[in-house]
Automatic annotation (TrEMBL):
It comes from Paeniglutamicibacter cryotolerans. The keyword Metal-binding applies. It comes from the Bacteria. This is Cytidine deaminase. The lineage of its organism: Bacteria, Bacillati, Actinomycetota, Actinomycetes, Micrococcales. The keyword Hydrolase applies. Its EC number is 3.5.4.5.
Length: 151
């Protein structure tokens, strides 16, 4: 997986999300905050919404806020949680969020925890074999068959 280093606009995005997380963190309701920066430079934030039966991820809230604003060309995305010492740290997106990124920001870069180092990767790299309807492919899926056995 190709990784990219961060630039000053990534640090600005991180700090915006960190401010939201520190202001609104609630161990029962709001454990993750996320943000997206669009191609216009605008930052849209989102907050995890937790309840007993369902959770809405912060990444989906941030994507929704960008889409609702009409400024939906997402360039960069990040999600943060608190570590055991209470520091805001980058957390990697779950599978549901990765699928949303495939639908709404496949071309975006995502800030990830790369074994302790924060770097950016292409959204598409996080879910290389994502689910698609057959009409969304430019290939035909063949019938499965067993490989020829060799003696």
């Amino acid at each position: 997986m190709h990784v990219n280093e961060l630039d000053s606009s990534d640090i600005e995005l991180f700090e915006s999300v960190k401010s939201l997380l520190l202001a609104r963190h609630d161990a029962e309701k709001h454990v993750v905050a996320a943000g997206v920066r669009t191609s216009t430079g605008q930052i849209h934030l989102g907050l995890h919404l937790g309840s007993r039966r369902i959770n809405v991820c912060a990444e989906s809230s941030a994507i929704a806020n960008a889409v609702m604003s009409g400024d939906d060309q997402i360039a960069t995305m990040v999600a943060l949680c608190l570590d055991d010492e209470g520091r805001a740290i980058v957390t990697n997106p779950c599978g549901v969020c990765r699928e949303l990124m495939g639908a709404y920001c496949l071309e975006a870069e995502v800030m990830i925890d790369d074994h302790g180092a924060v770097r950016k990767v292409a959204s598409a790299a996080l879910m290389p074999q994502r689910w698609m309807f057959p009409h969304e492919n430019d290939w035909a899926v063949e019938e499965p068959h067993a490989a020829k056995e060799t003696n």
